[in-house]
Write a structure and sequence with these properties.
single chain, alpha/beta, Alpha/beta knot, seven-stranded parallel beta sheet, 7 helices, about 35% helix, globular, Alpha/beta_knot_MTases, RNA methyltransferase activity, tRNA_m1G_MTases_N, SpoU_MeTrfase
Length: about 180
């Protein structure tokens, strides 16, 4: 009969060990995300799936904030993050540095997540947009591609924190065959 394991049995990294551990070659860009709970949830996801960095852009809230801290459960201390007021400038800078930039959005010509094949030799930045308006149209236009999560129900979108979790896990599965 299975049993739940205790927190001690999980053997998680300490914050100090996490900071020096190798990260997976991807970053998350949150552009104009209104909900501080969503921001905190994305921090937790970035910690769980060892993202290299989170960029918080536009009106997206930044730590320290009570609502971010509440949902991040300490991940704001482990995950590297940076605020960038200008998301377009940030994306252009990352592209110059050799990053592949994917806007996570529903758009013409998008690549379905099931068909996404990351280049394990390049870093990928995933852009997530505002809860109502989505990813900024200018980012959709300058991104290397648009990545779309297939959906089969009646709703037309997913919560940004849920989308980030799906994209991160999919990316890790595809670049690290040892996870399966």
């Amino acid at each position: 009969m299975p049993r739940k394991v205790s927190l001690d049995e999980l053997n998680r990294l300490t914050v100090e060990d996490f900071k020096t551990a190798d990260k997976y070659p991807y970053a998350l860009i949150l552009d104009n995300v209104r909900s501080l709970n969503n921001v905190g949830s994305v921090f937790r996801t970035a910690d769980a799936f060892r993202a290299e960095k989170i960029y918080l852009c536009g009106i997206t809230g930044t730590p320290p904030h009570r609502d971010i801290t509440k949902t991040a459960l300490g991940a704001t201390e482990s995950v590297e993050w940076e605020y960038a007021a200008d998301v377009i400038g940030l994306v252009e800078e990352l592209k110059v540095q050799g990053w592949v930039v994917a806007a996570v959005e529903q758009a013409e010509g998008s690549v379905g997540l099931q068909n996404f094949l990351p280049d394990s030799n390049k870093k990928t930045a995933f852009v997530f947009g505002n809860e109502v308006a989505g990813v900024n149209n200018q980012i959709v236009e300058i991104a290397d591609f648009v990545l779309e999560i297939p959906q089969f129900g009646t709703k037309h979108s997913l919560n940004i924190a849920v989308s980030a979790g799906i994209v991160c896990w999919d990316f890790l599965l595809k670049i690290n065959k040892n996870l399966t």
